[in-house]
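In the design runs reported in the main text, the only information available to the sequence generator was the tokenized backbone. The following block is the verbatim input for one such run; it is reproduced so that readers can re-run the procedure and compare outputs position by position.
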């Protein structure tokens, strides 16, 4: 990390130069905004996956909390590209992060402008067991509904429930948690969206559900539809997880990750199923620049 450069409000700083005081509202109250974006090596050079959509979501997260940023969406997009270039990242994870640097002891209103930093690192699989499929646990922690915390906002404090559920899953011997919404329907993983396959049809929780509408979720739906696979978006009950033929997660970090066991029940035959494999392989082709149909999802640095 010491050799790394961090983009800060349009200028590069050395990694160790970007610091804040412990009494900033971002540290005390979780008032930070973040994105997770990947870039991939292709034959035509390194490309960022769905840059515009991630940058737009970053801006929207700020808007939902009335937070003001020091940079525009265009400057953010340019900064992401420059950060990948400057740090010579090939297959990486990019983390834009907005934070306050003012010191506050009492209640805090978002009147100050937030600093925007961008970091990029080389990154491989998010899950150790990605290749063989994950064992998951339905968490006893529920996903907050959108009248409690806006699930579409990637604001640091929103992620405490993800932390609790993932921690519980690990401490019970599982790879990942699946969270239900307050209404008992399946919401998502701690940082992934979820898809089920039943009778060659794909089902995923509906748009109005209390979960983040992931950019990889949208990519997977478009991949499936382009392959002629029907995708139904509707409320999903917990027991459907146990009896479906295939199950997989999507997310920037997770990419397309198969799930082979939920709460001790084997999914299908316990192996990665054909539809999961198809989506995963097509996704890999797209991000490595080998797919014409979805070439527009790549921004070359
Ligand atoms: C809670 C949550 N759900 C789902 C996702 C997947 O979203 P995306 O595919 O946009 O990374 C993420 C990751 O950003 C997340 O934090």
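Verbatim output:
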């Amino acid at each position: 990390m010491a050799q790394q450069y961090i983009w800060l409000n349009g200028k590069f700083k050395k990694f160790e130069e970007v610091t804040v005081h412990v009494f900033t509202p971002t540290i005390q109250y979780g008032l930070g905004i973040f994105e997770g974006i990947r870039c991939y090596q292709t034959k035509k050079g390194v490309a960022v996956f769905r840059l515009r959509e991630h940058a737009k979501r970053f801006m929207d997260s700020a808007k939902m909390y009335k937070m003001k940023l020091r940079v525009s969406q265009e400057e953010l997009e340019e900064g992401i590209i420059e950060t990948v270039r400057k740090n010579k990242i090939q297959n990486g994870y990019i983390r834009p992060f907005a934070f306050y640097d003012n010191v506050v002891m009492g209640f805090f209103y978002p009147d100050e402008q937030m600093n925007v930093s961008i970091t990029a690192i080389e990154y491989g699989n998010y899950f150790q067991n990605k290749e063989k499929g994950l064992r998951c646990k339905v968490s006893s922690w529920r996903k907050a509904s959108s009248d409690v915390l806006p699930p579409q906002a990637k604001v640091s404090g929103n992620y405490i429930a993800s932390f609790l559920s993932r921690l519980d899953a690990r401490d019970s011997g599982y790879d990942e948690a699946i969270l239900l919404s307050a209404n008992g329907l399946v919401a998502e993983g701690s940082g992934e969206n979820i898809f089920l396959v039943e009778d060659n049809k794909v089902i995923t929780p509906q748009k109005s559900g209390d979960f983040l509408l992931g950019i990889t979720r949208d990519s997977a739906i478009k991949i499936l539809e382009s392959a002629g696979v029907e995708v139904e978006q509707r409320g999903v009950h917990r027991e459907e997880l146990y009896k479906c033929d295939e199950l997989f997660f999507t997310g920037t970090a997770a990419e397309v990750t198969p799930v082979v066991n939920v709460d001790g029940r084997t999914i299908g035959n316990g192996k990665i199923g054909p539809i999961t494999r198809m989506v995963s392989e097509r996704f890999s082709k797209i991000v490595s620049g080998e797919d014409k149909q979805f070439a527009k999802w790549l921004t070359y640095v």
